[in-house]
From TrEMBL:
Similarity annotation: Belongs to the short-chain dehydrogenases/reductases (SDR) family.
InterPro entries referenced in this protein's UniProt entry, alphabetically: NAD(P)-bd_dom_sf, Sc_DH/Rdtase_CS, SDR_fam
Keywords per UniProt: NADP, Oxidoreductase
Protein name: 15-hydroxyprostaglandin dehydrogenase
Coiled coil region boundaries: none
Domain of life the protein comes from: Eukaryota
Pfam families: adh_short
Organism phylogeny: Eukaryota, Fungi, Dikarya, Ascomycota, Pezizomycotina
Length: 289
């Protein structure tokens, strides 16, 4: 087991994270199970045996993630994969319907942006820290990252406006960093976008209201992750719609530019600017020097 792969599963104490933990533990991976739910996380680590351990981690805090990365590194001495899966939905309503009768000077309170902190900032923190730790992997530096976004990242719906935005941000992060991480860090990063999965994030009444064929089994999510994390899988920047039993690469459905070259140029890397922000050139073949 000493040379088996090491993975971090965030949000491991429930739903998809728990399913991912069980799947990869059964495949012989050594796993760090991160969650805010210590009781269930520790129970799961006991159930899965000595190659797994639980780390209490709030992914919305950089310091908490840094401590959890260090604990994982100290335990296993390498980190091959980050399964950045933890997520919540919004905690307050941007529509502020209940404040409709407020007087104009009676300004509603600021929104609770915990969803942005967990689903968006948590992924940014996790990716940056993964880059740092994966650089130190003995043998060959590098690794793999898979992030759980949502179909709502691509097709936003009115129930969760903040969540739509946080998950869309995650999709664009994956698309935006994939090429540089592959070339410069030997890190592959991909994104899984589930449909409706029967987990504790979903109200049971909503699950009951959905027809069976519109539910996505946990197995579809673990298959999507397993595909990305397979040794022979070299994809990066891929966005996978996971719906029902179907896993579809939706990258080819990227919007086309309506105004051709001038629009393409606006998002082509100009290396002096890249260097100004990041301290060295991008090394992208498409970059303008
Ligand atoms: N269930 C669905 O239908 C569905 C659909 C699309 C996307 N997703 C996404 O899938 C991922 C997994 O969700 P799930 O459905 O398994 O939900 P879940 O509620 O069953 O599990 C989420 C886990 O994340 C943990 N968590 C929450 N905040 C955390 C934090 N700050 N730090 C660390 N852990 C934290 C929770 O304790 C829980 O164990 C989420 O990113 C979610 O947004 C879910």
């Amino acid at each position: 087991m000493a040379d088996s792969k090491v993975g971090i599963v965030t949000g491991a104490a429930s739903g998809m994270g728990m399913a991912l933990a069980k799947h990869f533990a059964a495949q012989g991976w050594r796993l760090a199970l991160w969650d805010v739910n210590t009781k269930v996380g520790e129970e799961l680590a006991r159930e899965l045996g000595p190659n797994t351990f639980f780390v209490q981690c709030d992914v919305s805090s950089y310091d908490s993630q840094a401590r959890a990365y260090l604990a994982t590194w100290q335990k296993f001495g390498r980190i091959d994969a980050l399964l950045a899966n933890a997520g919540i939905v919004e905690r307050s309503s941007i529509f502020i319907f209940k404040y409709r009768s407020n007087k104009v000077e009676d300004v509603p309170p600021a929104p609770n942006l915990a969803c942005t902190d967990v689903d968006w900032k948590g992924v940014l923190y996790g990716v940056q820290l993964a880059i740092h730790f994966m650089r130190h992997n003995p043998g060959k530096p590098g690794g793999k990252i898979v992030v759980t976004a949502s179909n709502a990242a691509i097709h936003p719906h009115a129930s969760y406006p903040e969540y739509n935005g946080a998950k869309a941000a995650v999709v664009q992060l994956v698309r935006g960093v994939a090429e540089v991480l592959k070339i410069k860090e030997n890190i592959l990063i991909n994104c899984v976008c589930p449909g409706i999965v029967h987990t504790s994030i979903m109200p049971p009444e909503m699950v009951a209201a959905v027809s069976a064929e519109s539910l996505t089994p946990l197995d579809t999510i673990t298959r999507a992750y397993a595909g990305c994390l397979a040794d022979d899988d070299t994809r990066s920047g891929v966005i996978l719609e996971c719906s029902g039993t179907q896993i579809s690469d939706i990258e080819h459905e990227r919007l086309t530019f309506k105004n051709g070259v001038p629009s393409v140029r606006s998002v082509t890397v100009w290396d002096p600017l890249f260097k100004q922000i990041h301290g060295e050139p991008s090394e992208l073949p498409s970059a303008i020097l």
